Amino acid sequence: MRLKKKKNRHMAPPPPSEDLQTETMDIGTVESLHYDFNTIKAATNDFSEENKLGRGGFGTVYKGMLRDGNQIAVKRLARDSGQGDLEFKNEVLLVAKLQHRNLVRLLGFSIEASERLLIYEYMPNASLDQFIFDPTKRTILDWEKRYNIIKGIAKGLLYLHEDSRLRIIHRDMKASNVLLDAQMTPKIADFGMARLFKTEETQGDTSRIVGTYGYMAPEYAMHGQFSVKSDVFSYGVLLLEMVTGQKNQCFQNGDSIEDLLSFAWKSWKNGTTTDIIDPTLKTGSGSLRDIIRSIHIGLLCVQENVVARPTMASVVLMLNSFSITLPVPTEPAFFMRSNIDPEMPLLQEYTSSTGSSGVEKPKISKSRSRSSQYSVNDVSISDFVPR
């Protein structure tokens, strides 16, 4: 992605619908986001092990403290990104312009020789998965807190899909990519896998499958087709995880283990939805109706039919208005019933081969090149890759 510098600082800005590749870069704005490398080096105690928050395929994240006392999270990118300084700065500028209370805020960047750093606001309560999947910590999240988180994530995704300057599809929406601030406000993180579109564009195809298998919409995991509805599917999985307290790869049902989506669907159809609700949520008075309604919304989001899934605008409306009659959900996609680990993060080359049936079948490359690297822990690691 090669963007042109402004020759005339008084030139009128391009209209919002203009293609990203012809957008001019505001040099002054970019430089205002620049941090001195030595300042960040000192803030992280020379990137010490004690300050390390996590490591992934694209770099390491450190906690830092600036001289003014403000805490930051510093993402030290791997040195083989292959991206030029101008491209890197433009990606930073784009992400920095995303301002929403439910998105993690990018504060700036630093470049020193081959070193590239991204500076984010620090989230003291780490990621959502560390709460909802922990038997002790999940008790902190009563229904009111969980419902506020569910609604906050929906608002953040709606902003990315419809209200930001460009349409942005996240492509890796999951519990570990939702960070929590001191007030437990959810903040969507990791835009390294996001795909940027002009506002009139709604979908795309790719040969580069990225994300986490258990959260992926079937049309994306199997055919590389993605759209805003792919994020809606991932959001639906996350919503069901929030209500059940269970990870998507399995759900404990007596002596047997079932797929979360299929069991949620069967429970809803059989009128036994209360069986899948996190037991810690059943103690609240008057919340059962809202919890069951949320499961209903989650099932609408994970329908196999892309068209049948609601938009995030509809989801936000359904979450905030109990007078709206919800449509009846159809069967969710059960493609997770395979020998592929649903928790497996994917950032791999996608190819397809024709099987004996003559049908095009997906084949995931096992190459461990840079394109197959991924975050292996609970900390969000971004890869800034130009389109």
Tags for this model:
387 residues, alpha+beta, Phosphorylase Kinase, domain 1, Transferase(Phosphotransferase), domain 1, 2 domains, five-stranded antiparallel sheet, three-stranded antiparallel sheet, 10 helices, 16 strands, globular, disordered N terminus, Ser/Thr_kinase_AS
Describe the structure.
With 387 residues, this protein is of the alpha+beta class. The protein folds into two domains: 102 residues, Phosphorylase Kinase, domain 1 (2-Layer Sandwich); 192 residues, Orthogonal Bundle (Transferase(Phosphotransferase), domain 1). The protein is 27% helix and 20% strand. It has ten helices and 16 strands. The strands form six sheets. Strands 1-2-3-5-4 form a five-stranded antiparallel β-sheet, with helices on both faces. A three-stranded antiparallel β-sheet has the order 11-15-16. Helix 5 runs antiparallel to helix 7 and helix 5 packs antiparallel against helix 10. The chain is globular. The N and C termini lie close together (6 Å).
